[in-house]
Specification:
Shape: elongated
Bound molecules: glutamic acid
Strand order of the largest sheet: 3-4-7
Number of domains: 3
CATH architecture of the largest domain: Alpha-Beta Complex
CATH superfamily of the largest domain: Glutamyl-tRNA Synthetase, Domain 3
Structural class: mainly alpha
Distance between the termini: 81 Å
CATH class of the largest domain: Alpha Beta
CATH topology of the largest domain: Glutamyl-tRNA Synthetase, domain 3
Strand content: 5-15%
Helix content: 40-55%
Number of helices: 21
C-alpha cells in the first residue's frame, strides 16, 4: 500500500512554526516510505478565513523544499484539495450516516441551547448534548415525520449519534493506546447550519477518500481522536494510523509557544514575512536548510548526538521511533547556531546571489562582494548578521573605550606611526604582516600591543575578522587614513 500523508492547515493566517514542523514530519514520512505528500486546505470555517493564507502556506512549503505531490496548486487524482470545494461530497456522506441511523437532524435554536446550558450550569453540571439527554431536544429522534419535514425548510444541523456505554480505543504511534468512554463524547455536530461540515467530519471523510495511511498532526488534536474513531466506526471504515506530535513550548519550557513570545523576545515564529510588520525566519536571515534542520530537532532525534541533518538526510533517516512524547522547547539561539552551520557551508559565490545578502551588500562596490562575504562568513549566524559584521567597512565609527584603555599607556602611537610607514612602503599585501612582525621583534614591542592598536584603528574594536584581510579589503588609502585618524584620536 502506498504511504499517503497530508498536511491539512486551515487558512486562518500565516503558518506558525508548529504548523511548519507538522508539514515537515508529514513530508519526511512520505519521502522515507516512497509515499505521497498531500496539501489539503481545510477552509470550511468561513468566519476564520484569512485572505492570503493559502498562498502563504504554499510559499512557505516551497521555500523549505517541501513541495506537495498533490494539492490545490498542482492538483492530483483525489481532489479537489480545498474543503470549500467538496461540499457535495460531505452532503453525500452525511446522508449515508443519516440513512443508517448513525446521525440525526437537530433543530434546536441557539436560544434553546443556551437555556439548556444555563440550566446545566445552575445544576453544576457540564452541558452536553448526547445519549443521556438527546431525547429532550428538538431533533429527528423526537419529532414526527411531518414536523421534521417542516423544520428541514429552516436551519438545522446534523449530529453524530454516539452510542453510550462503549469504550473507544485508539492507538497513537507516539503515545500508544488512548481509551475513552463514549459516555463522555457529545453528539457532535457534523454539518453546521450553514450547510458546511465541521472540521471533524470533513477531516475524517477526506482522510478516507484521499486514502491517507498516516495522519500526522499536532498533539492539540489528540483529544479529538476518539470522536474521529467514532465517525470511522459509524461509516464502517478502517481508520488510518495516527501520530500526534509533541507541543512546541516557550523558551522557558512553560506553556505553548505563541506569537507573543516571539514579539516579546525578538524572534520570529513564522517561516516567511506576514503582512508588512511581521518578519519571518527568512527575513531574519535564515537559510531554508537551517530552518528545516532546526524544525526537525523540535521533537525528533535519530538516537545519536548528531544535530545536523540536511533535508536529504532527514528524508532517509526520519522515523516514528525518534519522535519524542514530551514537549519540545523552542530555543532561538540553537536555531541560529544550526543556521550558522549552513551559512558557513554555502559557497560564497552562492551566498552573494541571495537577495537578503545583496540587500546588505548593495552599499559596497560589487567587485568586493565576494571578498567581504568570504571574510566575515564564519561569523554569521544569520544572513542578517552581515549588517553588523560589515559595519567596520563604513566610516566613521567610534572606538571601543575598553579596548583603547588596554593599549593607551603602551605607546600605541609609536606602533601606529610605524604601520603608516610600512603601509606606504609595503602596501596591504602579505609583506605588511611580515615586516610589521619583524619590526615589533626588533623593537621589543609585544605583538599583542601591535595587533590591538592596529585593529582598533581599522575597525574601532578588539574583535573582528582577520586583521590583515580586513586591511587588504579596505585598501591602502583607507587603511592609512584610519590609522592616522586613530593617532589623532589618541594624541
Ligand atoms: N485543519 C486542522 C489544523 O488547522 C488540521 C488538523 C489535522 O491535521 O487533522 O490544524
Amino acid at each position: 500500500m502506498t504511504t499517503r500523508v497530508r498536511f491539512a492547515p486551515s487558512p486562518t493566517g500565516p503558518l506558525h512554526i508548529g504548523g511548519l514542523r507538522t508539514a515537515l514530519f508529514n513530508y519526511l514520512h512520505a519521502r522515507k516510505n516512497n509515499g505521497v505528500f498531500i496539501l489539503r486546505v481545510e477552509d470550511t470555517d468561513q468566519n476564520r478565513y484569512v485572505e492570503g493564507s493559502e498562498d502563504y502556506i504554499q510559499h512557505a512549503l516551497e521555500w523549505c523544499g517541501m513541495v506537495p505531490d498533490e494539492g490545490p496548486k498542482n492538483g492530483g487524482a483525489f481532489g479537489p484539495y480545498r474543503q470549500s470545494e467538496r461540499s457535495s461530497i460531505y452532503k453525500e456522506h452525511v446522508n449515508l450516516l443519516l440513512e443508517k441511523g448513525a446521525a440525526y437532524y437537530a433543530f434546536d435554536s441557539s436560544e434553546e441551547l443556551n437555556a439548556a446550558r444555563e440550566q446545566a450550569e445552575k445544576n453544576k453540571e457540564t452541558f452536553r448534548y448526547g445519549s443521556q439527554n438527546r431525547l429532550q431536544f428538538k431533533n429527528s429522534l423526537t419529532l414526527s415525520k411531518e414536523e421534521i419535514q417542516t423544520y428541514l425548510r429552516g436551519d438545522y444541523v446534523v449530529r453524530l449519534k454516539v452510542e453510550p456505554g462503549k469504550t473507544v480505543t485508539v492507538f497513537d504511534e507516539v503515545r500508544g493506546n488512548v481509551q475513552v468512554s463514549s459516555d463522555l463524547i457529545d453528539d457532535k455536530i457534523l454539518i453546521k447550519a450553514d450547510g458546511l461540515p465541521t472540521y471533524h467530519f470533513a477531516n475524517v471523510v477526506d482522510d478516507k477518500l484521499m486514502k491517507i495511511t498516516t495522519v500526522i498532526r499536532g498533539e492539540e488534536w489528540l483529544p479529538s481522536l476518539p470522536l474521529h474513531q467514532l465517525i470511522y466506526d459509524a461509516f464502517g471504515w478502517d481508520s488510518p494510523q495516527f501520530m500526534h506530535l509533541p507541543l512546541i513550548l516557550k523558551p522557558s519550557g512553560k506553556g505553548k509557544l505563541s506569537k507573543r513570545d516571539g514579539d516579546k523576545e525578538g524572534f520570529p515564529v513564522f517561516p516567511l514575512q506576514w503582512k508588512q510588520d511581521t518578519p519571518g525566519f527568512r527575513e531574519m536571515g535564515f537559510l531554508p536548510e537551517g530552518m528545516v534542520n532546526y524544525l526537525a530537532l523540535l521533537g525528533w532525534n535519530d538516537g545519536s548526538d548528531n544535530e545536523f541533518f540536511s533535508l536529504k538526510n532527514l528524508e532517509a533517516k526520519f522515523d516514528v521511533e525518534g519522535v519524542q512524547k514530551g514537549g519540545a522547547r523552542f530555543d532561538y539561539e540553537k536555531a541560529r547556531w544550526i543556521n550558522h552551520h549552513y551559512v558557513i557551508e554555502q559557497p560564497t559565490e552562492e551566498l552573494i546571489q541571495n537577495p537578503y545578502v545583496l540587500e546588505i551588500l548593495k552599499e559596497f562596490p560589487k567587485e568586493k562582494y565576494s571578498s567581504i562575504v568570504a571574510l566575515v562568513k564564519e561569523r554569521l549566524y544569520t544572513l542578517k548578521d552581515l549588517e553588523q559584521e560589515t559595519a567596520f567597512l563604513k566610516t566613521p565609527y567610534d572606538y571601543d573605550e575598553k579596548g583603547v584603555a588596554k593599549v593607551r599607556d603602551k605607546n600605541p602611537v609609536k606602533v601606529l606611526e610605524q604601520i603608516c610607514i610600512l603601509l606606504e612602503r609595503a602596501g596591504v599585501g602579505g609583506e605588511l604582516k611580515e615586516q610589521l612582525f619583524h619590526w615589533a621583534k626588533e623593537e621589543g614591542v609585544p605583538l599583542g600591543v601591535v595587533m590591538q592598536s592596529f585593529r582598533l584603528s581599522l575597525v574601532g574594536a578588539l574583535s573582528g575578522p582577520d586583521l590583515f584581510e580586513v586591511c587588504a579589503l579596505l585598501g591602502k588609502d583607507v587603511s592609512l587614513k584610519r590609522v592616522q585618524n586613530f593617532i589623532n584620536y589618541l594624541t
